[in-house]
Amino acid sequence: MLNLHRTAMFIAVADTGSFTTAAEAMGLTKAVVSFNIRQLEEELGVTLLLRSTRRLTLTEAGRLFHQRSVRLLREAEQLQDDVRANHTGLTGDFRITTTPEYGTQVVVPLLAEFSQQHPDLRVRHVSSSLHADLISERFDVAIRLGTLADSRYRAALITTFNIVPVATPGWLVNHRVESLEQLAEADWIIHERLASPLRWQVKDADERPVSFEIKHAPRLYADSAQVLMAFALAGGGVALLPEWLVRNALDAGDLVSLLPEYTFAQQGIYAVYPDARHVPAKVRTFIDFMRARVN
């Protein structure tokens, strides 16, 4: 019978590349972790790790065992959490990752309320603009914005939002933007993580689709919406930003929405989770909770 506790130790060692780091993360001694890995190898009858003075290397069997055991351990944890949830409410760890901007403004306040409703649940939030590997990094859910392309995961649509081109009143003093053609000729600030940041489909006031393409090579790029807005507020040009992010700046007059008669394609807010056969109760509960709050 496979020992899941030893399996968790092996995953920690493989992920960190260090017995010492893995032991510290699990609150154990290096000797205990090392002993259990040796016992696991004996039980399996294979060598999982090649040890040298400089580094640890997974054997071919070790790589296969790591890949399968990560999923196995996750399903075991989900089963345990679901059984407990039916009896005592949500328990265990709930690991969630979001972008810094949407996380700070929307998700983190919701997580605080969610945690109060489920006091036995340990909420762990990671803020990152990078798309995490949900399985290897053991995230329960990721909140992602825009459009999705990764078919390895399942996604639940939470809501949609508008994106709007904005610039400062000061920038508009020296730049005329009264038509879509003039907007295409403007100085743009570009989100470099987008697949096609220079081409968009927009709709006019009569809901007719219009192709829109930025004409001049942009000089300013950023990898987060917050930095794009900072560039725009500094008078760097036009940025295409989520309405929820720029609403306060628009209301204060620090930014101006350009050509509001044209609408850019709506974007989605998704809860993304591993494509498991069984969705944990904590994931289902949080998705329902978030939908009820942000719609």
From TrEMBL:
Which SUPFAM superfamilies is this protein grouped with?
Periplasmic binding protein-like II, Winged helix' DNA-binding domain
Using the record, list the residue span of the signal peptide; answer none if the entry has no such feature: none
* Keywords (A to Z) from UniProt: DNA-binding, Transcription, Transcription regulation
Q: Which residues form the HTH lysR-type domain?
A: 2-59
Does this entry carry the keyword Transcription regulation?
yes
Q: Which InterPro entries match?
A: LysR-type_TF_proteobact-type (IPR058163), LysR_HTH_N (IPR000847), LysR_subst-bd (IPR005119), WH-like_DNA-bd_sf (IPR036388), WH_DNA-bd_sf (IPR036390)
Any Pfam family from its record, for instance, is LysR_substrate
Ribosomal protein among the record's keywords? no
Q: CDD domains annotated for this entry?
A: PBP2_CrgA_like (cd08422)
PROSITE patterns for the chain: HTH_LYSR (PS50931)
Similarity comment: family membership: Belongs to the LysR transcriptional regulatory family.
The identity of this protein, by name, is LysR family transcriptional regulator
Q: Which organism is it from?
A: Enterobacter huaxiensis
